[in-house]
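Input/output pair, single chain:
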Amino acid sequence: MERLAPTPSAVPWFVWTSLASVTCILGGVYWDISWHMSIGRDTFWTPAHLLIQAGGVLGGGSGAWQILATTFRPASPARAVSVRVWGFRGPLGAFFAAWGAATMLVSAPFDNWWHSAYGLDVKILSPPHVVLTLGILGVANGGVLQIAAALGRSAGGATAALRRALLVVAGEVLVLAMIATLEFTFRSNLHNASAYRAVGIVAPLVMLAFARPSEHRWAATIVAGTYMAVMIVGVWLFACLPAEPKLGPVYQPITHYVPLQFPVLVIAPAVVLDIVRRRLERWPRIARAALLGPLFVAVLVAVEWPFASFQMSDAARTWVFGTAYHPYFMHPDWPEPSYRFFRDGSSLGVGLAIAAVLSAAASYLGLVLGDAIAKVRR
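Output:
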């Protein structure tokens, strides 16, 4: 276990397993949602489910190995950078990853029972999916903590590589977080405040939480760019893969996988966050959050509102933006396939003001988490 040395001069092996684990989970989650929109059949043994669980097993297995090796090898150098939990010793991130993987595995029979009892999911965050999401968060956060701890102790050439690894996994975490908001960010909802409230809570929190430990000037931009790239490639790639519905009623003709929608343009407010936050380093944390949160929402509305209008136009119905792809179960009269915005009846001004306040609170939490992650050494 020499690679677990307290001051790594090379990238430790568990950094690569953490990255691979989160990547497998992300790919499986995207594939699973596309599977539901395109094919409809659902069992535990779908390839998408297996890819998700493989990611959990990889991350959890890596964490469990580190815990057992550190606990039962008194001479292990990892003991100097470990924590003690219920008599076991190991890196803090390893415990998170092992717990998350166990939770993911528990969610599988729960999900099967749920489908047997209630049929197909009508919501992304059904109870078994909530359990699965908690497990995924455990594995992802475990990977983050392990990379952050190695970065905090690193020396030499490993530091730059570990910073890149941290930003990559941060981008993948943002993708997973944004996927959780899909029910609020459909194109037809992008002229309602609820969409900007959901994104304003999730995106600044993730971006700011990783900006501080990465110490990169353009950290938020890189994280947002990773999210944009993954989602755009998903639109282009999945539309090339053949698929057909196995359940009815079928309202939309499907010959290929239906990808998730074109990403929300969080790259624009991310660039602004990176420019502004560097100028506010001497400000109190609460003052920084009070400015960054509303600023994020304002920039997002300024770019996404007109872009949403464009997406509803004939010009966007190409393979580039993928707005002509609709799940097989969408009735032609619904807002999405009829290319019209859904109006929820709430006050837009009040809703955006609430979004700004909540985004400020999320920004504050992101700054707190960022300072905490930067201090992780175990």
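Residues 1-5 have pLDDT under 50 and may be disordered. The chain has ten helices and two strands.
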